[in-house]
Amino acid sequence: MTAPSRVTTTAPYLEMDRLLADPVTRTILCCGSGGVGKTTTAAALALRAAEQGRTVCVLTIDPARRLAQSLGLDELDNTPRAVSGVDTSGGGRLDAMMLDMKSTFDDLVLTHTDGARAREILGNPFYQSLSSSFAGTQEYMAMEKLGQLRSTGTWDLIVVDTPPSRSALDFLDAPHRLGSFLDGRFIRLISAPTRVGGRAYLKVMNAGMSMVASTVSKVLGAALLGDIQAFIAAMETMFGGFRERADRTYQQLKDAETAFVVVATPERDALREASFFVDRLSNDKMPLAGLVLNRVHVRREGSLAADHALRLADEVERLAGAEEPTTEQAHPATPEADRTTRQLTANLLRLHATGVQVAERERRQLTRFTAMHPDVAVASAPALAGDVHDLAGLREVAAALATR
Amino acid sequence: MSTDKEGSVDVAESGSWRGRPRDWRRTRLHIVSGKGGSGKTTVSAALAIALATGGRKVLLVEVEERQSISEVLDVPPLAYEERHLVTVSGGEVVGLAVDPHDALMEYLALYYKVPRRAGGTLERMGAIDFATTVAPGLRDVLLTGKVYEATRRRAKDQFVYDAVVVDAPPTGRVARFLGVTTDVASLARIGPIHRQAQSIARLMRSPLTAVHLVALLEEMPAQETIEAAEALRAASLRVGATIINMVRPPLLRPAELSAARSGQLGREAISADLASVGMRDATAVDLLIDEATAYAERVALQRRARRMLRDIGQPTYELPLRGGVDVADVYELARSLREQASL
C-alpha cells in the first residue's frame, strides 16, 4: 500500500490559486468527457477568482437546472449578468452566462450583413437547421462567443465550460470541421449554379464530378439544394471565410493568456479521455494548466487497511455468534442487544473496508494516468454526498481544489 | 399519444406494463441510452445477451464509433459488417458498428446505383464529410437508417434478427438522434431522404421500439433521466424500462442507517466491540461513526433518486455494481435482467 501513495505524490500539485490570480491568465477552458463535473468546476473556479478580486465571466454551456438558478441563469439571453451573493469585498466581480448557440449564430449574421441579407439568411430553412441542430455548431459558437467576450475587454478572466460532447476533443475539432465544410469545395460545387461564373466552374468539372453533382441533387432533392444554394450565396459576402475565422479563434487558444484545465473523475473511462486530451494539447502546443480530479474518495487519516478491517469484522461477528442467548454470562445484560451491536460494529468495519477499497482503486487509476503523464499537475476535490447547486457548494469545491 | 399512426395501442402508455412484463417480446428494437458514465454500453451488451439466451438471434449495434462493445465483451473491434460476437445457450449475438461513411456509400449504391469510383470522387469532394459530419441530421438518418434496415430485414419470410439492441447516444442527445429524422423530413421536404426519414420515424415511434434509459442512483443523473423520458415522450417515442445500474448492496441495516442519521450509534458499545478484537484506538471509533453517518446520508439520497426514477412510471430493473466489469460480469448482469424483465 505504500507504493501507490508514493506514486501519487509524484504528480505535481496544480497551484490553483496561483493560476486564478495570475494576471497573465485571461481565459481558462474546462474540458473533459461528459458527466465529470466540467460545469461545476468552471463555476467554482470562476467564483473563487472573483472573490479573490478578479473581474470574471463564466460561460456555461448546459448547466443543470438548479446550478443555473443559483448563478441567476434563469433566462437564456446570451448576455453575461452579475451573479448575486458573490463576495465582492476584494474588488472582484462575477458575471455568468449560458450559451444560446442559435442566437449567437444569429448575432454573427446580423453583425456581418446588412438588414435585407440578414433577413434572407435568418429565414432560410437550411440556416435554421444548421444553427440549431448541426453537430459542431455548439462548439463553433462556444468558441465564437469566447472570442467575442475576450474582445470586449470587460473581464480580466473568462472561464469556459465546454459542450457536452462525445469526446473532449470535439471542442477542438468541431469548429474547424464546420469551417471546412462551409468553405469547402463540395459546398462550392453544389452552390455553383447560383454563383457568378458558375457556368465556367461547371465546365471544368470532369465527368465524375458532374455525376457527383447529379447524384447530390437527386439525393437531396431540388428544394433542399435550392435552400443550400441560397444560404451559401447569402453567406458568401459575410465573412472572410468561416474556416479562417474558426482557425483564428483556434490559434488564440495557443497564446499564453489561455490555460486549459482538463476535468476528470478518478475512473478509467474519464481518465482515458483526459489522457487523449492531454496528448492532443501537447501535440498542438496548447497551454495545459493541469488536471482537475473531481469526486475523489480519499483514505482518511487513521483508516485501516481494507483486509485488516475485514478480518476484524469477521472476528467481531464470530464473538457475536459464540454468545448464544441462553449462555450464562458474567454481566446479566441483554445478550440480544450485545449481538446487535456486534453486528453493527462488524458492519461498520466492512463499510470502512469498502471505502478504503474505493479510495485505493481510484488511486490506482490516477497512478496509471500520472505514470503516462508525469508532468501534468493535479488538483482534486472530494466526493460530496449530494450535488452542488449553490454558491456555498461551489465555494467548497473551489476551496478543496485550491488545497494541496 | 396512446396510439401510433397505424392505430395500434402504444403499450408503454397504456399503463399496463407492470402486469405484463413479457410484452418485451413484442419489442423488436431496443434503444439503450443513459447519461455518460452510467454504463449504457455494458447494459446494452447484457441486454443483447439476455435477449439471445434460449435460442434467439440478436443484433447489437454500436453507433458512436467508440468500439466500447469490443471492450466490454472482450472481442475484436466491431466493423461495418455483421459479425458473430457470442453464442449463448443456442442463441447468438451478432455485432455491428455503424459508421456513417460506410452507411452512406451503401445507401448510395443501394438506391442510386452509384458505382465505387463515384464514391471515391464524392469522398475527395468532401461530399461524404458533408453528409456524415455536418449535414443537418443526415448523419443520424444514415445511422438510424441502417438500424431500420437490419430490424426489418427478412429472409424466407422470417425476420433475420429476433431483436436489435442499439447502444445509442447519451440521454442529452438521444431524442434528437431518434427524432432527428423529423428535422430532416421537414428540411428535405420532398425527395428520397424525406421518404427514408419518414419510414425510420414510423418504426421509431411504433410499439416495436422501446427506448430504455440507464440511470444511476444519484441526484443529477436521476434528474437527467427524468428529463430524457419527458423529451422522448414529447417526441412521441416510447420510453422502455428504467435500468438502474451500479446499485451497491446495502452495507448497513435499516435500523443502523436511521441510528447513524440521527447520531445515535452507540459509541461505547462499538468501542468495546473493537477493544474485544484488540482494536483500542479511539480515533478509529470516531472514524467509523463519521463514515456511517456520511453513508446513511448517501443512502437517503439514493432512496430519493430511486423514488424519482420510479415516478417515470416504467418498469424499473436494478443491476448491481461490479468491481471491474469483465466479460463474466456482463453475463451475470444479463442473467439478472432476464430474471427481472422475464425475458
Helices and strands in order, then pairings?
The complex is a heterodimer of chains A (404) and B (343).
Chain A: H1 2-10, H2 16-21, E1 27-31, H3 38-51, E2 55-60, H4 65-70, E3 81-82, E4 93-98, H5 101-112, H6 115-122, H7 125-133, H8 137-152, E5 157-161, H9 170-183, H10 185-191, H11 198-203, H12 207-220, H13 222-236, H14 242-252, E6 258-264, H15 268-283, E7 288-296, H16 306-322, H17 335-372, E8 378-382, H18 391-401
Parallel strand pairs in A: 1-5, 1-6, 2-4, 2-5, 6-7, 7-8
Antiparallel strand pairs in A: 3-4
Chain B: E1 29-34, H1 40-52, E2 57-62, H2 68-73, E3 83-88, E4 91-97, H3 100-112, H4 116-125, H5 127-134, H6 138-152, E5 154-155, E6 158-159, E7 163-167, H7 171-187, H8 192-204, E8 209-215, H9 219-234, E9 239-247, H10 254-261, H11 267-276, H12 282-310, E10 316-320, H13 327-341
Parallel strand pairs in B: 1-7, 1-8, 2-4, 2-7, 8-9, 9-10
Antiparallel strand pairs in B: 3-4, 5-6
Helix pairs in contact in B: 1-13, 3-5, 3-6, 5-6, 6-7, 6-8, 7-8, 7-9, 9-12, 10-12, 11-12
- Percent of residues of chain A in beta strands? 5-15%
Trace the largest sheet of chain B across and list its strands. 3-4-2-7-1-8-9-10
Radius of gyration of chain B: 24 Å
Please bin the fraction of helical residues of chain A. Answer: 55-70%
Tell me the radius of gyration of chain A.
28 Å
Classification by helices and strands of chain A: alpha/beta
Instruction: List SSEs of chain B in N-to-C order.
Output: EHEHEEHHHHEEEHHEHEHHHEH
Q: How many DSSP H or I helices of chain A?
A: 18
Oligomer: heterodimer
Q: Ranges of chain A with pLDDT <50 over ≥5 residues?
A: 1-7, 194-205, 324-332
Low-confidence stretches of chain B: 1-21
Q: How would you characterize the largest beta sheet of chain A?
A: 8 strands, mixed
How many strand units of chain A? 8
- How far apart are the first and last residues' alpha carbons of chain A, in Å? 21 Å
Sequence of strands across the biggest β-sheet of chain A: 3-4-2-5-1-6-7-8
N→C terminal distance of chain B: 26 Å
> Largest interface, counted with CB-CB under 8 A?
A-B, 69 and 70 residues
